[in-house]
Amino acid sequence: MQHGEPKPLVGIFWMLVTGLCFVAVTALVKYMGPRVPPAEAAFLRYFLGLGFLIPMLPAVRDAHLTPRQWKLFTLRGVFHSGGVILWFYAMTRIPIAEVTAMNYLAPVYVSIGAALFLGETLALRRIAAIVVALIGTAVILRPGFRVVEPGHVAMLFCAVTFAGSYLLAKIMADEAKPAVVVFMLSIFVTIGLAPFALADWVTPSWGDLGLLFAVACFATAGHYTMTMAFAAAPVTVTQPVTFLQLVWAVALGALVFAEPVDIWVILGGALILASVTFITWREAVLKRRPITPPAPATKL
Fold first, then answer.
1. Exposure string over 14-47, b if 16+ CB within 10 A, otherwise e
2. Long-range contacts of 126-129 (CB under 8 A, 24+ apart)
3. Max avg pLDDT among 178-187, 198-207, 236-245
4. Rounded to two decimals, what is the model's pTM?
5. Percent of the chain's residues with pLDDT above 90
6. Is 165 in contact with 80 (CB distance < 8 Å)?
7. Which of 61, 99, 210, 258 would you label with 93, given CA atoms 20 to 30 Å apart?
8. DSSP 8-class letter at 53
């Protein structure tokens, strides 16, 4: 994805902006709270963002998708739809910092899934890094020392479903243009979320619709600036910057939502992200085709 000479400072800047965009997404969803059911909120986020797909229509029109590709796009839509519902649910149940920290798990699950389904080799160092990530998860949850809320369980499964979505995206990226992959994800997720949204529909206020449209805008902007960051500098440079998302989430939770600062969540998140960063660095050192995604790549 990188073109020309690396520009580390530019890449770091765009990754900082990416982090702010995704923290804005979490803040807006947290502020809205449970007024709109999770499935409906997720559906409206994608439905209101469909306008951003218009520039991609020519690429989709020229694509000649095979039945196999349609099945893979559908399967990815199923995975991602489930992940988005779980994420919206968790945001209304547990602190922002814990959602942010546990979302770092998705790239670790991608690494495991790549070994199970894509034939990737799990070397000893990668296994050790995965173990460190799991220790980080245990530090955050601390079962036996605190109550593990349904929101925590939702985030554990959310990371798995986002990892499945990303692995399918990696497969499709070799067969279709990026615009087609993005377009199909948005369409299939919107369709996939619709039945769940209608099953528990609550008429949203204009204010809630405005918040969800802002969520769609910030999420789209975050993915765009993330692309800019990857084009300017290697992932090994930009990956550590994503830790600031956790710092900002902790500060936001404490200052705006009166959520207590939990040092164990920060420590656990740091362990998980250190694991992801190490795996990414090893892929770069070994000059392997990168499989493990940067931490923000599994955002909604």
1. bbbbbbbbbbbbbbbbbebeeebbbbbbbbbbbb
2. 126/279, 126/282, 129/275, 129/276, 129/278, 129/279, 129/282
3. 198-207
4. 0.86
5. 40
6. yes
7. 210
8. G
